[in-house]
Design goal:
Radius of gyration: 24 Å
Order of helices and strands: HEHEHEHEEHEHEHEHEEHEEHEEH
Largest sheet: 6 strands, parallel
Shape: globular
Strand content: 15-25%
Structural class: alpha/beta
Number of helices: 11
CATH superfamily of the largest domain: Response regulator
Number of strands: 14
CATH architecture of the largest domain: 3-Layer(aba) Sandwich
CATH topology of the largest domain: Rossmann fold
Helix content: 40-55%
Distance between the termini: 88 Å
Strand order of the largest sheet: 2-1-3-4-5-11
């Protein structure tokens, strides 16, 4: 009898341990890692990605656990951090163009981990790419700049010469040129994503040369604040920066990454994640704009008209004929740039009197 009692107790205990183990396994959260190019407090690019990370937590609660590493430089540091995140996470998001090659390398080493790369164009079986058509909002900024400039000189604080930055310079200029054939553009390469001092210096150099419309592809509010300090106007970058320069901001591009992040992490949770390429659009709410301020009604109305036409799929800034500034035809009459063209754009459009660095 004692033998059967002992056997019964052993079976019950084993079943209990097995049940607890199953419950513990089922309760394990999906681990989500992020690598950021700047600090989460930059009030621009990284700030908006981190809002997306927080939205993951809000959407899934204790079903997920997120972590991030901020201000990671390109090169060996990036590869090291991506590998570190891959060792402890189920899905890793790399949020800058320069992380593409190291992520592709690490993805091969961790076939059971999902990888997602922002603003790139390479994929693999376990690495997807994603981006937003932020050039759509930048074109609207150009429309406004062309109508608002008093000196016919607009300007751009650029970060690094990569396709994303080049195409936004182009679309900004094309928008301004559409409204003002006499407009000229100055470009200063700050060679940084986030350095408020360098960004402000670049803005001040161009304003000293007559620029009165400030756009930027760097991430702090410094260029916009510099514009306000000199009585000039400009545009916020990646988030609504109105509170930093309420007399200067005309509008801002707002990067809305959250819905994509929530969707892709949900796919990891339910086992349906697949690779591919996502390119968010105004019409799905991933590309947004801050309210139009500090401008007359006719400018506001025109900007709203163009914005709506872009959202409705009736207006495409990169529609041929478009030549580059060497005279080479890049898009034939009526041709709309496809994603491959947009994601590999390394030329300035006709009219920009400058040379793309490195070309």
């Amino acid at each position: 009898m004692r033998y059967f009692e002992k056997l019964f107790h052993t079976v019950v205990i084993s079943m209990f341990i097995g049940l607890m183990s199953s419950l513990a396994f089922a309760a394990d959260p999906v681990k989500v890692g992020f690598i950021y190019v700047g600090p989460v407090g930059d009030h621009g690019w990284t700030y908006r990605h981190d809002i997306g990370r927080q939205q993951i937590e809000k959407a899934y609660g204790d079903k997920v656990k997120t972590t991030y590493v901020e201000s990671v430089k390109y090169g060996p540091d990036a590869e090291r951090v991506i590998r570190m995140l891959a060792e402890t996470n189920d899905i890793v998001f790399a949020t800058s163009f320069g992380y593409m090659e190291p992520m592709l390398k690490v993805a091969k080493e961790f076939p059971n981990v999902k990888f997602e790369h922002a603003t790139g164009y390479k994929q693999s079986d376990n690495m997807a790419s994603y981006g937003l058509r932020l050039y759509q909002a930048r074109h609207v900024q150009g429309i406004i700049a062309g109508m608002m400039t008093k000196t016919n000189k607009i300007c751009y604080v650029a970060a690094y010469p990569i396709p994303e930055v080049i195409r936004e310079i182009n679309t900004y200029y094309l928008g301004a040129k559409k409204m003002n054939p006499d407009v000229d553009i100055d470009i200063v390469w700050a060679n940084t994503w986030y350095n408020p001092s360098k960004e402000a210096d670049a803005a001040n150099v161009m304003m000293a040369e007559g620029c009165d419309m400030m756009a930027q592809h760097t991430d702090s509010p410094a260029p916009l604040q510099a514009a306000q300090s000199q009585g000039k106007l400009g545009f916020g970058q990646a988030s609504d920066q109105f509170k930093f320069a309420p007399k200067a901001q005309l509008t801002a591009t707002i990067d809305n990454w959250g819905p994509y992040y929530v969707q892709k992490v949900g796919q990891v949770i339910d086992g349906t994640w697949t690779t591919g390429n996502y390119f968010g659009h105004m019409n799905d709410g991933s590309v947004q704009m801050a309210p139009f301020t500090n401008m007359p009604d006719n400018v506001r109305m025109k900007a709203a008209e163009i914005k709506q036409a872009i959202s409705d799929g009736k207006y495409f800034a990169f529609t041929g004929p478009i030549k580059d500034n060497t005279g080479k035809l890049q898009l034939k009459a009526g041709e709309v740039a496809d994603d491959t063209h947009l994601n590999t754009m390394m030329y300035y459009v006709e009219g920009i009197d400058a040379k793309v660095p490195g070309n």
